[in-house]
Write a structure and sequence with these properties.
Oligomer: single chain
CATH superfamily: ABC-type transport auxiliary lipoprotein component
Helix content: 25-40%
Number of strands: 7
CATH class: Alpha Beta
Number of helices: 2
Largest sheet: 5 strands, mixed
CATH architecture: 3-Layer(aba) Sandwich
Structural class: alpha/beta
C-alpha cells in the first residue's frame, strides 16, 4: 500500500480560478475559467489515480489515514508551482519525499512543462494533467528503485 500525503499546494492556488504565470513573479487569475472543485482535491485525486496506474496492483490511499494504520510506503509532496504558462503549457514544480516507515528512502524535485495539443483552456488543463502524470511517474520510479 502506498500512502499519498500530505500534499501541499501554495497559497496563490487556493482559489477557484485557473492561474496563469505572468512576467516574473506575477500571476494572472482567470475571471471566467474555474476548476470544477477545489484544486487541492482535484490535484490529490488525479495524482492518486496516476500513481495507481504507474504502480499497478498497489493500493493508493490519501492522507490523512487512521492513527495506527499508516501505510508502509508514504509519498509526501510540496507543490511549488502549478499553473498555466502564457503559451498555454502546463507547468508543475514539486518537491517530494518517499518514506518507508519512518526512513526517508528518497527525495526529489519534479519539474514538468507539458505543451498543450491545441489552443484554449481545455488544452491547458490537459497539459496540467500531463504534468501531474509526470510527477506520478517519477514517484513510481523512485518507489520501484527503492524496493528491497
Amino acid at each position: 500500500m502506498l500512502g499519498l500525503g500530505p500534499v501541499r499546494l501554495p497559497a496563490y492556488l487556493d482559489r477557484p480560478e485557473l492561474v496563469t504565470r505572468g512576467e516574473g513573479a506575477r500571476v494572472d487569475v482567470a475571471g471566467d475559467e474555474r476548476w470544477a472543485a477545489p484544486l487541492e482535491t482535484l490535484f490529490v485525486a488525479a495524482l492518486a489515480e496516476d500513481l495507481r496506474a504507474a504502480v499497478p496492483a498497489r493500493e493508493v490511499v490519501a492522507w490523512p489515514w487512521p492513527a495506527g494504520a499508516a501505510p508502509e510506503w508514504v509519498a509526501s509532496v510540496e507543490v511549488l508551482r502549478f499553473e498555466r504558462a502564457p503559451d498555454g503549457a502546463g507547468v508543475l514544480e514539486a518537491r517530494w519525499t518517499l518514506r518507508r516507515g519512518a526512513e526517508v528512502v528518497e527525495r526529489g524535485v519534479t519539474r514538468a512543462r507539458e505543451r498543450p495539443r491545441a489552443a484554449g483552456t481545455a488544452a491547458s488543463v490537459e497539459a496540467l494533467s500531463a504534468a501531474v502524470r509526470a510527477l506520478a511517474d517519477e514517484l513510481a520510479a523512485a518507489a520501484a528503485g527503492a524496493r528491497p
